[in-house]
Amino acid sequence: MGAVLPLLALRAFVETGRCGSLKAAAEAMGVTPGAVSQQLKLLVERTGVNLFVRNRHGVSLSPAGAQVYPALLRAFDTIQDSMAVLEAINGRQTLTISTVPSFAASWLVPRLGHFTEKHPDIEIRVEASSALVDLRRDRIDVAIRHGLGQYPGLVSRHLASPVFLPVACPRLLADGPRIRTPKDCLKYPLLQDSDRSDWRLWFKALGMAYDPRIERGPAFDDDVLLIRAAEAGQGIAMVRDVYVQAEVASGRLSIAFDHAWPTEFAYYAVTLPRVDEKPAVASFLSWLQSEAQVDRSSF
Q1: Are the folds of 92-161+265-298 and 164-255 the same?
Q2: Do 11 and 80 contact (CB within 8 A), yes or no?
Q3: Which intervals hold domain HTH lysR-type (predicted)?
Q4: What number does CATH give the domain 164-255?
Q5: Helix residue ranges, H only, the chain
Q6: pLDDT tens digits, residue range 59-97?
Q7: Which of 112, 115, 116 is nearest to 126 (CA)?
Q8: Model pTM?
């Protein structure tokens, strides 16, 4: 009979290699960093091979560790997928969806009843956060984000391209420098969304090189607060067009720079590779894209 495989130690190795630090690996495993360190020590003692080298950011795989890491990573991912299949055989399936709070509240959650009616055997769990997530580590089935669709190692599906407008108080624009190009907006304070991404992505989609001024300025968790700050003359806000129709029509706000919206700046459904082969995930993605096609104006 062969020796018992040190599965816990091997998983500690895989998670540390995936995360690049003992602390992050411990969080993924639900244990302490000390426990991860102990398991890695046991694995080194058993094999006689150093698996990691320390660097200023944490740890990285040694040449020997890098040699076996890909196969072990695939093995543990296969185990996790198999467990999900077993758990779904006699029970309801649960999908975890991650998205930003504004999208969850204004679009996704009000429509989830439509999905449940069509798929009563699939439960949806929504995690609303502006923070970036690691789909594998955090066990997220589908992430819905707005951006440019560039997510290395992941599969993204375009949902819809909402139009955002740079708007400001007319008096602020009249008294300040003239805006002829997108870069001229940087001559004014930029009013930011909660994760300071909209201005950065807008400039990037228009081909403008990164400038640290893009992410400066006060940030607001709510679009209403962002609009009120713009009305008060505090700077230029990047806001969804449907949210400022009344303000622009009444003259309380003006469009600072009227430019066609870059369609690549859009909402995307993002998954790990091959995750869409799971029936429940495939059903949700199909429903999500259908809803987006039917009601693009609400994004």
Answers
A1: yes
A2: no
A3: 5-62
A4: 3.40.190.10
A5: 7-19, 22-29, 33-47, 63-89, 101-103, 109-118, 170-175, 198-205, 223-231, 245-250, 279-294
A6: 899 999 999 999 999 898 888 777 767 766 665 688 999
A7: 112
A8: 0.60
